[in-house]
Amino acid sequence: MSMIVLGISSFMIALSGALVPGPLFTLTVSESVRRGAATGPLIILGHGLLEILVVVLVLSGLSPFLRHDATRQFISLAGGCMLIIMGVLLLREAPKARLHPAAEGRKKGMNLVVTGIVGSITNPYWVIWWATIGLGYLVSSLRFGIAGVVVFFFGHIAADFAWYSLVSYAVSKGKRIMGERGYRAVLLSCGIFLIVFGGWFIHAA
C-alpha cells in the first residue's frame, strides 16, 4: 500500500461511514437550521479533536480496552441516556422554536465544537469502528511512520468535513424555503431520531 492509496482509501471508507445517518448527522441537521452553514465544519472540528485523542490513545496501547465488552456496554448505556435527554430537550423546544438569523442562533445552545465531541462519544459504534477498522488502518499506516498516520488521519477527517459541510450548507439554505412550520417539523424529527438512537444503543448494551 502506497501513501497515496492509504490516503484515498481512508477517505473513501470514512465517507461511506459518514453517509450513514447517525446521532452526529441528526445534530448537524437540527443545528444547521438555526446556526447556518458553518455548523457542519465546527461540529466536525470537535469530532476531529476527539479522534486525534483516540488515535494517540490507540497508538499508546488502548485498543484492547476499546474492544472489551464492558467498555462497549458502558458507552452504549451512557451514550444512549445522553441521546435520549438531548432528544427530549429538542422535542420540548420544537413547538415554540422560531427561525432566527444565523448570527443570533450562534449565541444559543451548546457550543458546536462541544456538540461534535458529545455527538461522537455518545455513539458506541464510533468506538467499535476505531477498535476494529480504525485500528487496522493505523497498523497499516505505521509502515510509513508518523507521516503515514498523518496521511491516514487527514484522509479520514477530510471525508467527514466534506460531507457534513455539504449537509450543513444544504440545510441552512433550505430553511428559507421550509418556513417556521417546516423548521419545527425538522426539530421534531431530529428529536425523535435522537431518542430512537438512544433507545437502540441502550438495547444494544
Characterise the protein shown here.
- This protein has 205 residues and is mainly alpha-helical.
- The protein has one domain.
- The chain has eight helices and no strands.
- The protein is globular and about 55 Å long.
- About 3% of the residues have low confidence.
Structural class: mainly alpha
Number of folding domains? 1
**Percent of residues in beta strands:** under 5%
Helix content: over 70%
Major sheet size, sense and barrel closure:
none
Radius of gyration: 18 Å
Mean pLDDT level = 82
Describe the global form: globular
**DSSP strand count:** 0
- Continuous helix count: 8
Low-confidence stretches: 101-107
N-to-C SSE series? HHHHHHHH
Q: Distance between the terminal alpha carbons, to the nearest Å? A: 37 Å
Annotation keywords:
205 residues, single chain
Question: Short description, anyone?
Answer:
This protein is mainly alpha-helical. It contains eight helices and no strands.
Task: Please render the helix and strand layout as text.
Blueprint: H1 3-18, H2 23-35, H3 39-67, H4 69-93, H5 102-105, H6 112-121, H7 124-141, H8 146-204
Helix pairs in contact: 1-8, 2-6, 2-8, 3-6, 3-7, 3-8, 4-7, 4-8, 7-8
